[in-house]
Amino acid sequence: MKVLVVDDEAGVRRTVSLILEEEGYDVAVAADGREGLAKALENGVDLVLCDVRMPHVDGLEFVDRYREEGGRGLVIVMTAYGSMELAIDAMKRGAYDYLPKPFDADQVLLTVKKAEEREKLWREVARLRHQVAAEKKYPDIVGTSAAMTAAIELANKVAPHPSTVLITGESGTGKELFARLIHSSSPRNRAPFVPVNCGAIPENLLESELFGHKRGSFTGADSDRVGLFEEANGGTLFLDEIGELPQQLQVKLLRALQEGEIRRVGESSSRDVDVRVVAATARDLESEVKDKKFRSDLFYRINVLNIHLPPLRHRPEDVPALVRHFLAHYNDALGLQITGFTPDAMKAMLAYPWAGNVRELQNVVERAMVLADGSEIYLEHLPPNVRDPQADTIPMLENLPADELSIKKHSAQLERRLIKRALELTDGNRTRASGHLELSYRALLYKIRDYGLE
Predict the structure, then answer these.
(1) pTM: predicted TM-score of the whole model, two decimal places
(2) What average pLDDT does the segment 71-78 reach?
């Protein structure tokens, strides 16, 4: 805590400084009110101990000017026995407390510590008010960590402007939720919010999905079709996993962003569109630009404003709040009355690295609630890989006891590991992953959900 001692008596300055420095406070001094005012405003102190009677600027004027010029620290005035009316006047003007002279070390420390506790209390109240306000405004975004609070504040700040936003972060960190937050907080919130996953649509259909097509422009085009850009006209188009966009479509997207117009497949004329684009990716697009896998001009066009969402393993303090959020949600949705997790179960939840981030945590909470027998969730209700992260490995056959020879159990473990590895190798592209795994796309989606890999 930074403390400034302002007094024209050198002995008082020295005595108070020694008392406070021995208790670990960061203390500065000033010999008169004018010097004290300059130091208090320049250095951003937390507490000022200020004499009432001083040359140039006295204690009353100090309090007035300090508040008028934006000073936020608490002010304690020091006053001699015969000047109590001045101390009371200073408190009416905004001083927090007074310290009568002469004083001893205990009096100084008691007064300062009381002010310190009051300041801590007010800061906590302000933090809680901010948290409650954020939860009311953005009920689906849960997180009080510094990183998430900063991301929410940034999203709210950029929302009113039409600039393109790029949201980065691993799969499951909540990129679409932030895109919806930006849309709902923008002047476009009465117009459509249109989401599209660029990696979930076959490459040969993606241009038609985005820009629309004219009847007869290709086999199967039986009628004119409006594309997603036109659907989002006046609103927001959310391009999730934009890193999956083929090179030839990157050129057309760049033109749409720069010119504010699109051309349907099979048509020769362009159409004007008014669309705010919010893009998202789990990839490192800067590296892909260097490797010529993503166009640099498009990257700089979409990366006007960047919001990065940290993975859950980097903000474990958000896990309890997320658990409470999903408990309330599924109690209502499933008609349950689960009160919470036992200490052992919560300890496992906090220790788990959450490769699938919030989406994986949500699946685990839902699964545990369905399996729970009573009002609490115990350690045994959690998946094996959460109870023990090492359970994701298959033990050597010679070490397996007779009651652990289930083919079904170990096949599931192997299948989960293969799917997880395929998703890692394809940067989360499920279409490509399904090809590597020799599974249908639909079957892969089901298994991803079943294994909590979303």
Answers:
(1) 0.59
(2) 89
